[in-house]
């Protein structure tokens, strides 16, 4: 069976660049303890006999579950580890199983200003978390909340039901 190293390299690069991880090649290299050239070789799809410890460390850092490297090499998709977000300073713990991007944002600096659940028809809903910038003044928080109230009103007005094709 042929292993698609180019596909693996692209998938890892895309995961590194995703908002949840958002690292440069240099930062990734430093975090997993290799040189930038190793990251470049992995992302370029350099062929190996089998996945290396560096590839596995890279996959772990971008949140892939065990077995994802092999799945991608074989033409499948990675699966992601369930990651528990840390408890907010003044609230209950956040449940595990959130996407890494959300966990990253919740861990980030800035005050939690509001949350909302927006219905998307009968089949789904959208959860919105609104955070302010770190160290915001009371006036800045008030402006942020006012902007959120306007955006929330617009989101609630959208009809998310399937509409007939106008043609």
UniProtKB/TrEMBL annotation:
Domain HTH cro/C1-type: 12-46
GO molecular function, one term: DNA binding
One matching Pfam family: HTH_3
Source organism (scientific name): Streptomyces venezuelae (strain ATCC 10712 / CBS 650.69 / DSM 40230 / JCM 4526 / NBRC 13096 / PD 04745)
Protein name per its UniProtKB record: HTH cro/C1-type domain-containing protein
């Amino acid at each position: 069976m042929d292993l698609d190293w180019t596909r693996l390299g692209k998938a890892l690069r895309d995961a590194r660049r995703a908002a949840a991880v958002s690292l440069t090649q240099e930062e990734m290299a430093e975090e997993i303890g290799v040189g930038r050239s190793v990251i470049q070789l992995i992302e370029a799809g350099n062929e190996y006999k089998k996945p290396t410890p560096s590839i596995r460390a890279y996959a772990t850092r971008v949140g892939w579950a065990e077995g994802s490297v092999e799945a991608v090499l074989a033409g499948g998709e990675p699966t992601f580890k369930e990651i528990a977000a840390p408890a907010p300073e003044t609230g209950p713990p956040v449940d595990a199983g959130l996407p890494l991007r959300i966990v990253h944002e919740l861990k980030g600096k800035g005050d939690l200003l509001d949350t909302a659940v927006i219905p998307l028809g009968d089949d789904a809903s959208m959860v919105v978390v609104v955070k302010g910038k770190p160290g915001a003044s009371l006036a800045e928080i008030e402006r942020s909340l006012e902007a959120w109230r306007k955006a929330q009103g617009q989101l609630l007005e959208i009809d998310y039901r399937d509409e007939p094709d106008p043609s």
